Amino acid sequence: MKAHDGMYIGGAWRPAAGQDVIEVVNPVDEQVIGTVPAGTAEDVDTAVRAARAALADWAATPPAERAARLAALRDVLVARADEIAETVTAELGSPLKFSQAVHAGVPIAVAGSYAELAATYAFEEKTGNSVVHHEPVGVVAAITPWNYPLHQIVAKVAPALAAGCTVVVKPAEDTPLVARLFADAVHEAGIPAGVFNLVTGLGPIAGQALAEHPGVDLVSFTGSTAVGRQIAAIAAGQIKKVALELGGKSANVILPTADLAKAVNVGVANVMSNSGQTCSAWTRMLVHRDRYDEAVELAATAAAKYGDRIGPVVNAKQRARVRGYIEKGVAEGARLVAGGPESPRETGYFVSPTVFADVTEDMTIAQEEIFGPVLSILPYDDEEDALRIANGTVYGLAGAVWAGDEAEAVAFARRMETGQVDINGGRFNPLAPFGGYKQSGVGRELGVHGLAEYLQTKSLQF
What we know:
Blueprint: E1 2-3, E2 7-9, E3 12-14, E4 21-25, E5 32-37, H1 41-60, H2 63-79, H3 81-92, H4 96-120, E6 124-127, E7 130-136, E8 139-143, H5 149-163, E9 166-170, H6 177-188, E10 196-198, H7 203-212, E11 218-222, H8 225-237, E12 241-245, E13 251-254, H9 260-272, E14 284-288, H10 292-304, H11 316-331, E15 335-338, E16 354-357, H12 364-367, E17 374-380, H13 383-390, E18 395-396, E19 399-402, H14 406-413, E20 422-423, E21 437-438, E22 441-442, H15 447-452, E23 455-461
Parallel strand pairs: 1-5, 8-9, 8-11, 9-10, 11-12, 13-14, 13-19, 14-17, 16-17, 19-20
Antiparallel strand pairs: 2-3, 4-5, 6-7, 7-23, 12-22, 15-16, 18-21
Helix pairs in contact: 1-7, 2-4, 2-5, 2-6, 3-4, 4-5, 9-10
Active site: 245
Organism: Streptomyces purpurascens
Family: Belongs to the aldehyde dehydrogenase family.
C-alpha cells in the first residue's frame, strides 16, 4: 500500500489542509492499495484561488502555444500509457488489455484532438459589421466519475485548456490514483502553474464545495442524474454555467432486416464492456417478436462467454446495487436466461453477466440505469412500437440501430430522442459530440462541440 500525500495546486504538490485520508481498494481482491488525502473546503478554496490567479495569463496565451502544451501533454500520456493502464486496472478492476486500449488509449486520442483543435479553431470571426470573439468562460470545476477515470478527466480538461480556461479537478474517490498520474503528466508537459489543479476528496465535501465556490464560472460534471440535479440547483443560485453528462438507458434497436447474429453479439459485448459500467451502454435490446426467441438464445450464449472476461464492478456498494436490480427483475416477472444475482467468485466485487428475457417496458430493469453487466431484451410489434419503446424512458444518451439497409437504420435513428446513435455497429469517434437529451444531461463533450462548452461569446460592432 502506498500513501499519496498532498494536492496538486498552483503547479506543485502541497500538503492537504486536513489529516483525513481515503482508502483506495482493488475491486478484484478487496485489498487496500493506497490512500489519498480527503480534501476539504479549504483545499478547494486554495485550488480555485490558484486557478483564478493563473486565468488571465493563460487566457491571453496564443492558441498555438496552448496547442503546443496540449501536444506535449499527449506525448507524456503516450510515454506513460503502460503505467496509466496498470493503475486503472488496479483501482477499477478493468482487465489490463481493456485498460490499455480504452482507459489509456482513448484519453491519448482525445488529448491529441484538442491539441489540433486549439491550433485551428476560429476564436474570432466576422459577421456583417461585427467581430465575434470566442473567449474562455473562466475557472472550470471538473467533477469526474470512476467508470472511465482518465478519459473523463481529459474530456473536460483538454477542451477547457484549449479554450484558455483554468481548471480544478475533483476525481471520483474510488479511482483517484490515475488522476494523480495525470497531474504529474500536466507538470511534465510544462503547463503553467495554476492552470490545472487537483483536489482529491469525497463528493459531499470537496465536490460540493467546488460546485458552490463563487470563484468557479462553470461546473462540468459527469455522474448520476440525481447528483446532476443537485449541482444544477447549486449553479442556478449563482447563475453559473453547467455541463452535465448524466445517466442513460440506451436502446439497441434490431430491425427485422438486420443481421440478427451480428447485432445481438455486438449488443451483448457493448453491455458487458467495462463490466457494464458505461453510461451509454445499450442495456435495452429491442427485437421484433418474430425473431425474439432466436435473439434471446443468441444473447444467452454470447453472455455466457463473458464470465471470465470481464472485471468486477467498482466497489461493494455498486455490487449490491446491481444485484438488487437483478433480484427486482426476477421479482417483477422477467426471465433470467443468463447470470443472476449470485456472485461468481468468493472474493472481489464480481457480478455475473446477466441477460433477462420477457422484459416489459414498465419494469424497473427497463427504466432505471443499473450500471452493471445486465441486459434486458424487449419484444416489439412493428417499427412504431419499437420507436415508442426506445423513446420511453427519462433518458436519452445513446443508442444503436441495425437494419439490412443503412438508409432504413438512419431514418429510424433520426426519430430517436437521444444524443448519439450507432448505425450497424458504427465505431466510436472521439471528434463527434457526446451528450444527452432529457435527463441524460445538458451540453456536449468531445470535438469542436466540446470545446464550445468552455467558451463565451462577445461581439464588437463597427
